[in-house]
Amino acid sequence: MIFCCPVCRGTLEKRDKSLYCPNGHCYDISKYGYVNLLMSNQSSAKRHGDDRLMVEARRDFLDGGYYSPIRDALLELALPALKSGSRLLDAGCGEGWYTSAVYEKAKASGIDIEVACSDISKDALRYAAKRLPEAEHAVSSSAHLPVADGGCDMLLNFFSPLETAEFYRVLSEDGYLIRAVVLPRHLWGLKAAIYDNPYENGEPETELEGFALDRRIDVRSRIIVEGEDIKRLFSMTPYYYKTSAADHAKLEALERVETELEVCLLSYRKTQLAKE
Ligand SMILES: C[S@@+](CC[C@H](N)C(=O)[O-])C[C@H]1O[C@@H](n2cnc3c(N)ncnc32)[C@H](O)[C@@H]1O
Ligand SMILES: [Zn+2]
């Protein structure tokens, strides 16, 4: 098991519908298949991740296949780095669309990997557990992962909070970190259809302490989105809750939008940290 006890970092063992550590800490597996490993002092944190509406919108949109070029770029980076027994952790996994693609592709190639999905949103994990029941699923914060030091060999961090020091801690020596981040003109066509003065995203920061960038793939494509999928796509973005009623009305009226898809995938290897 990739997840460990969040209190004492002891190994977890599954018995019936609970996970137990050697020090007597016990966590029940919910009927949806995830376990809550968020410590009580963390659950009071303001941000609880994506709510059900956002999660369902993203699940339905991703299932429409619009983001397949991003998934394919991930497979190109991840597959050569995996072998049977590799431990893959998705930090901020959402509904597990990308993780399950890696798992399925590895399996089809004869590679049996262990997978753990972590997200701070219960709603997200509920769908991730349904999509990929073969994986472990835990409600947890990327800032305090319930994973032992060196407890995973590859970590995915797709459009979710980056916690460089924590990712460094949980990755094994020479482990892989694969991130996906948006480029300046990602979804420009969608933003231009809604806002009078849309602005570009900033350039991503690619240098990470303790990691060496190994490969980068920029995915640039155009997608045509129609009907309900337009709202689904918009509700996946950080702008959704910051948009005025008037701009929301413009969104509701849109029937078809053509927009850029511009993201970059960054694959890093863990290196030695410079001595102080
Ligand atoms: C934009 S979504 C991306 C989900 C998924 N990786 C994908 O690309 O489809 C961001 C995810 O990060 C999660 N999240 C936000 N803050 C988090 C935190 N501190 N720790 C773990 N997950 C977090 C949200 O609940 C949400 O599922
Ligand atoms: Zn414990």
Tell me the quaternary state. Answer: single chain
Q: Structural class of the secondary structure composition? A: alpha/beta
Helix content: 25-40%
The small-molecule ligands in this entry are: S-adenosylmethionine, zinc ion
> How far apart, in Å, are the first and last alpha carbons?
34 Å
* Number of separate strands: 11
**Helix-strand pattern:** EEEEHHHEHEHEEHEHEHHE
Mean pLDDT: 93
Any idea what the radius of gyration is?
19 Å
* Tally of helical segments: 9
Largest sheet, described in full?
Answer: 8 strands, mixed
Topology summary:
Elements: E1 13-15, E2 18-20, E3 26-28, E4 35-36, H1 40-43, H2 52-63, H3 68-78, E5 87-91, H4 97-108, E6 114-119, H5 122-131, E7 136-139, E8 152-158, H6 164-170, E9 171-182, H7 188-194, E10 211-226, H8 228-235, H9 245-253, E11 256-270
Parallel strand pairs: 4-7, 5-6, 5-8, 6-7, 8-9
Antiparallel strand pairs: 1-2, 2-3, 9-11, 10-11
Helix pairs in contact: 2-8, 3-4
The chain binds S-adenosylmethionine and zinc ion.
